[in-house]
Structure formats: C-alpha cells, structure tokens
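We include this case.
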Amino acid sequence: MAKRLNILKTRKLYVNGKFPRSESERYIKYITTDKKQIVNIARASRKDFRRSVKAARLAFKPWKNRTAYNRGQILYRMGEMMESRKDQIANELRLEGFDRKKAEAEVSSTIDLIIYFAGWADKFQQVFSRVNPVAQPFFNFSVPEPSGVVSAICSDKTPLRSAAAVLCPAILTGNAIVLLYSQKKPLTALTFAEIIHTSDVPPGVVNILTGLQEELLVQFASHMDVNAIIYCGNKKKHIKIVQQNSSLNIKRCIILNDKDLDNVKKDGPFSIARTIEIKTTWHPVGV
C-alpha cells in the first residue's frame, strides 16, 4: 500500500458562536518541538478582532440578564466537557513541549479552576454588595455589575489555564470576552472553543482568536468599545503598550504575571472583582 500524506488541518477562529477562517485567509504553519508541521493556525487580523468585539457587545446585554445560577450551570458544563476530552487536550499540550506530567497537571488544574468559579457564580454578589451607612433619610446600596466587553491576551507559559483564569471570572459576572490565545502554544485553542460551543454558552459571549501578539496588541488595548483589558505575561514592552493604549478611553487595565496566574484560585472572589464595577444606588426611606 502506497504511503499517504497527512492532511494538514487549518485551525479556525471562534467568533459569534461560529468557526470562521480569518478574513485575510492568512495562517501560521505550526511546527512541533520535534520539527514536524502538523497543523495550520488561523492568523487573525484587526478586522477579525473588530468583528469579535461587535459580537461580544451584542451578546453582552442578554448574557448579563441571565440568572447567576444559570451562568454557574453553564460554567460547570464547560468543566464536564473538558473532563471528557482531557486526554486529547493533554496530547495537544505534549506536542507543544509539555512532558506528560505537566500536560496532565495543566488540564486537571484548568478543569478544577472552571468548576471552582462555577461555584462562585451565584455567591460573589453577596461578598461585594453592601448596605452603606449614611447620615440622611436614605438607603444606600452598593451592588456589583459587569464591566461590559473584556479583551484578554493569554500567557504562553500556561496557555490553557491562563485562558480559563481570565475567561471564567469575566463571564460568570455577565461580561462578554474576546481572547487572543497563546501565540507560541495555540493547539488547544480550537479544542477549548469546541468545549465552549457545546456547553450552552450563547454566541458572542466568548470569542477566541489566534495570531500574532505584536500585530493585535494595540487593537486589543485601544478599541473604544472594549471596557477592560487583561494582559497575561511579563513582557515589559507589551505591558507598556497595553497600559498606554487602554488609557485612551479609560478602560480598566489588568496585568497578570505568571505568579498572579498561579494565585488566581487563592485570590478567591477578588479575582472576580477585576472585571466588575460597583454601582451605588440611593433610595428614600419609607418609599
């Protein structure tokens, strides 16, 4: 029997609940640690990002109006789906240079993180809500609300876990998000997108792009319809770009280094507070 050639797949983007190619038709040849090309990675453009932000904005209002319990159910379903595909995901991580033990630990810790945040979905409001004492005949309430659309750049060190560490706290509070997945280790991006797609997450709430950070970083930080940006990493040049451009519309800027990502679960609900706003309401007494 003649030796056949492997068919190289092109990993697509995940935008508005669909799996489109990049509008520019560009892709990146992905070479594994043993020097084999096994897949093509879609290279997102600035137009793909703008399209993702538009989808996230349209999805934001109906998503934030879902009950907290329902959002928790959906996150829990994501954890269930990842548990059923953990061997596949671990194999993808091994192709990116993880040894077996580290790959399995990355997947297990990601699943645990998703389930952990699912449990917070209907509880964080009680932690951050307040009835404030005032010297007037009014009630004064402080309640948490989602920021809106969040953009996020994932870490190259822990691609899967960093994606979950920024995605889960953001969407459980009612935000919609656009993720730029790890540039150096993008193989698990599509699998993660497929898990989200089959977990009852409404279209547009989560959008996942793959591509070059240098090309998209300014857009992620400067877009006027983005309310908060999360950057995962230690590159001082990138951090400066994010901080400077996020100030253009005074969006919330969150920088998470590798140590911060390791402590996301230890931070408890305070990692959720990064992408919420506190609204204060006055109400007359006796009305």
Notes: The longest strand covers residues 138-146. DSSP finds ten helices and eleven strands in the chain. The two ends are 85 Å apart (CA to CA).
